[in-house]
Amino acid sequence: MIPGPFLLYLGHSDDDVGIKTSRGLAAFRRDDCLGEWRHDDCPLTLGLPRMDAAAARAAGARTLVLGIANAGGRLGEALVQDALQAIAQGMNVAAGLHQRLRDDPRLVSAAAAAGVELFDVRDPRADIPVGNGKRRAGNRLLTVGTDCSVGKMYATLALRDALQRRGVVADFRATGQTGILIAGDGVPLDAVVADFISGAIETLAPARGDDGWDLIEGQGSLFHPSFAGVSTGLLHGAQPAALVLCHDPSRTHMRGLPHYDLPDLAECLAANIQVARLTSPYVRAVGVALNTVKLDEDAARRLCAATGDALGLPCTDPYRFGSDPIADWLLQCYAPSTPATTASA
Q: How confident is residue 341, by pLDDT bands cut at 50, 70 and 90?
């Protein structure tokens, strides 16, 4: 486990989606977050006290979390210099970027001298097996998306909480850097060699013999040319009984690809069900999760209602309005007397 409390890094970021790791920690582990470190040119905030490394350390912060993402997941020079400041103050540093902290000699040397640790979250375990697709017992739900960064992690965590409030055993299975930092465990799926993606998920969510649920965080989208491979392996390895489709209605095109339109929701859902059926023949959709943060409340509720009517599924913004409609429908579809492995589609 990465030692808390945390100082969440925003740095010079001006991309709201790009700070999703810091934002996710602020949302789901707020009690462990002492403050945010942002420079004067950063227009974003998480609503936490603004602190630099010295102030955060004085307040008790133990780890600087570099909770930002950029194209290629690289360590920029400004980020490295800020990390060195935190290390000099006696703080650990954690990051989930593709470029590892341990690959920068300056950070390694400074951490060793200060007696602190560097945590590279995007490090998959070395002994991941190749997936085999064998049917395994247990109830598993996977969130899928029309695009990347549309709220799959938020929807998964919100649904976990809703099920737990109903007395259902529900476990969040993290597949990305933010989810791993929140849960303290998981598999950084986009850092796994392609041949082992499905095997990584089979290991992450193995067979279970109770009536509980593994709720698996989705990644990418089948319709995103850059990340569809990860999404496909995840669908096969998860062997899900249930899917929840996640969508950001404010998007005008695929993230980072203005030359690609967003898919139709019904088309996207059908494609995900078809791909999932390779390893889970009885998979079914149980809900739609909209990310309505850019809509006012009335417009958001109207859109949820209209989307649900159009697709014949419960639809909500799980973080804003709660995921009760999806949780209730899931439990109705998969009562303990009707195991997810045999329920009709």
A: very low
- Long-range contacts of 308-311, Cβ-Cβ distance < 8 Å, separation of 24 or more: 310/265, 310/266, 311/245, 311/265, 311/266, 311/269, 311/285
Closest CA to 54 of 7, 10, 12, 93: 7
DSSP SS3 for 81: helix
- Residues 57-104 have pLDDT tens digits of 999 999 999 988 776 677 888 999 999 999 999 999 999 888 899 999
Q: Are 139 and 237 in contact, with CB atoms under 8 Å apart?
A: no
139-333 falls under which CATH superfamily? P-loop containing nucleotide triphosphate hydrolases (3.40.50.300)
Tens of pLDDT along 262-307?
A: 999 999 999 999 999 999 999 999 999 999 999 999 999 999 999 9
Residue 113 vs residues 80, 151, 228, 239: alpha-carbon distances, Å: 16, 39, 42, 46
Residue pair 38/11 in contact by the 8 Å Cβ criterion: yes
- Residue 27: count other Cβ atoms within 10 Å of its Cβ: 18
CATH among 1.20.1260.10, 3.40.50.720, 3.40.980.10, 3.40.720.10 for 6-120: 3.40.50.720
Share above pLDDT 70 across residues of the chain, in percent, rounded to a whole number: 96
The domain locations on the chain are 6-120, 139-333
CA dist 206 and 136 (Å) reads 7
Give the pLDDT score at 345: 36
The Cβ of residue 73 has, within 10 Å, a number of other Cβ atoms equal to 17
Q: How far apart are CA 209 and CA 143, in angstroms?
A: 22
Section 209-220 average pLDDT:
95
- Determine if residue 103 is left, alpha or beta; phi over 0 gives left, psi from -120 to 50 gives alpha, anything else beta: alpha
